[in-house]
């Protein structure tokens, strides 16, 4: 057998480094105060941009679509949020007890008319759109057609959906060739 090739010994540089001064160790009381002061800043920073209406819209939209990217692309919030901000807010609502509690308290104080307006903006789920796509593009569906669809499938449609809302969404789907009998 041949001997394994030997590698040259590693080169070690002998540069002189300046001694590093030890950092001052804060007193235990100061460290606690610093840690406590950071968390409320984060909570209040989030509360400034995220309105209770935004939180309610986010929750309902995610429950409908199960997709944060769709929510980012399809929901109009009170201000522009990046996908990352939406993801961070969703996780904060789920897992941060302080933010979750404050957001729930604020959403409970929304006026019933504001809640109804928010619920009317909720995205359509894939299942809802599948049912709507079965209404033919050449048919002339009336409000009764969509009311019947609501009655036949109450488990599929979002509770606040109306026949008029279904008709308007169906017309959009027809306009963009998303119905089952369109190519």
UniProtKB/TrEMBL annotation:
One of its GO terms (molecular function) is G-quadruplex RNA binding. InterPro entries: MCRS1 (IPR037912), MCRS_N (IPR025999). Residues 1-11 have a biased composition (Pro residues). One of its GO terms (cellular component) is NSL complex. Residues 1-38 are annotated as: Disordered. It holds the Pfam family MCRS_N. This is MCRS1 protein. The lineage of its organism: Eukaryota, Metazoa, Chordata, Craniata, Vertebrata. The gene is Mcrs1_0.
């Amino acid at each position: 057998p041949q001997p394994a090739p030997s590698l040259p010994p590693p080169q070690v540089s002998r540069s002189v480094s300046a001694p590093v001064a030890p950092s001052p160790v804060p007193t235990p009381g100061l460290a606690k105060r610093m840690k406590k002061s950071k968390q409320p800043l984060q909570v209040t920073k989030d509360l400034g941009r995220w309105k209770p209406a935004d939180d309610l819209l986010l929750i309902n939209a995610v429950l409908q679509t199960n997709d944060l990217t769709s929510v980012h692309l399809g929901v109009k919030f009170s201000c522009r949020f990046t996908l990352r901000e939406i993801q961070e807010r969703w996780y904060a609502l789920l897992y941060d007890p302080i933010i979750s509690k404050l957001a729930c308290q604020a959403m409970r104080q929304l006026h019933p008319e504001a809640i109804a307006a928010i619920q009317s903006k909720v995205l359509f789920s894939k299942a809802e759109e599948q049912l709507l796509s079965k209404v033919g593009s050449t048919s002339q569906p009336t409000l009764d057609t969509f009311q019947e669809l609501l009655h036949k499938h109450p488990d599929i449609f979002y509770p606040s959906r109306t026949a008029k809302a279904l008709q308007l969404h169906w017309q959009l789907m027809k306009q963009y060739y998303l119905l089952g009998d369109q190519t």
